UniProtKB/TrEMBL annotation:
Signal sequence residues: 1-27
InterPro entries in UniProt: TraB/PrgY/GumN_fam, YbaP-like
Pfam family, one: TraB_PrgY_gumN
Organism: Colwellia psychrerythraea
Alphabetical keyword list: Signal
Lineage of source species: Bacteria, Pseudomonadati, Pseudomonadota, Gammaproteobacteria, Alteromonadales
Identification of the protein by name: TraB determinant protein
Length: 294
């Protein structure tokens, strides 16, 4: 689509514990209707990696999709056949001048990282040239595969569906922006970043399953507890990954209310962007928009 960077990049961007309450008999999910006067749009929280068992999606997603003629995603997903972009991305995600992640870690943290990667069935040498943000994202992907929890995310699902249904696609960011964001994450703070993420990855499966449950229920309180609160000890990452982007998206969303009234948008962003005091929904409420869950 998430910090515990790996967690947020999954959601969030990269983003998804078990709620002890049932998913409730109420028709609630991570889809909201945002209104101003007689005009409205829909905003849905996505998970960028979703196991096949989570399909079909909650009915509210399909309801909002059917009522919308424009699908707005965070960024255009690079084509799998775009080798130039892939090459550029790999170059940006890697250290230059023959440096490796180990050059920035203490002996103990490097050992812990190597042991962790070995437990996933791979060798540190395969990843050692990657910068920390991309490295931890890749490890989270491997964890998801190991747990049998990987699969096509909500973003890809609706991107493909919109193309098939000839619905217009629009974007809040460019792919290069997201690439730069991940490439710069943790750089200059590798020791603390890697150490913190390794600690958080210990309970990856239970965290991911719990976040999926909170996402399906649209449980904003639980999403904030799981996705936002753990990031409070890393203000730079939460600012870069979430709050700055939330603020940047608001003008784009407000523009949707000044265009053709016959257009109806469904905005799909990582669900972590819709939880907490500085979420997209909170910012819109502060501006006087009416926000209600479908």
């Amino acid at each position: 689509m998430i910090k515990n960077t790996a967690k947020q990049l999954f959601l969030g961007a990269l983003c998804i514990a078990a709620s002890i309450t049932s998913l409730t008999a109420l028709a609630e999910s991570s889809v909201w209707k945002v209104s101003k006067g007689n005009d409205h749009i829909f905003i849905g929280g996505t998970v960028h990696i979703l196991p096949a068992s989570e399909f079909p999606l909650p009915a509210e997603f399909e309801q909002a999709y059917q009522k919308s003629n424009i699908i707005v995603l965070e960024a255009k997903l690079p084509d799998a056949s775009d080798t130039d972009f892939q090459m550029k991305m790999m170059q940006q995600m890697a250290y230059g001048q023959n440096k490796t992640i180990g050059d920035f870690l203490s002996a103990k943290t490097k050992q812990n990282l190597s042991q962790y990667i070995s437990a996933l069935g791979v060798d540190l040498m395969m990843f050692e040239r990657f910068k920390p943000g991309f490295l931890m994202t890749m490890l989270a992907l491997l964890e998801a595969q190991k747990a049998g929890l990987s699969g096509e995310g909500v973003d890809i699902f609706y991107s493909n569906k919109a193309k098939k249904d000839n619905k217009k696609l629009a974007y809040l960011e460019i792919a290069e922006f997201q690439m730069n964001m991940i490439a710069n994450m943790g750089v200059g703070n590798e020791e603390k970043f890697v150490k913190s993420n390794l600690e958080q990855m210990k309970d990856f499966k239970s965290m991911f399953l719990g976040l999926l449950k909170a996402w399906r229920a649209g449980d904003e309180k639980q999403l904030n507890t799981l996705a936002i609160e753990p990031m409070k000890d890393d203000p730079n990452t939460i600012k870069t990954l979430l709050t700055d982007r939330n603020k940047n998206w608001i003008p784009h969303i407000e523009q949707m209310f000044s265009g053709n009234r016959s257009d109806k948008e469904l905005v799909l962003v990582g669900v972590a962007h819709l939880a907490g005091n500085n979420s997209v929904l909170a910012l819109l409420k502060a501006k006087g928009y009416r926000v209600e869950k479908l």
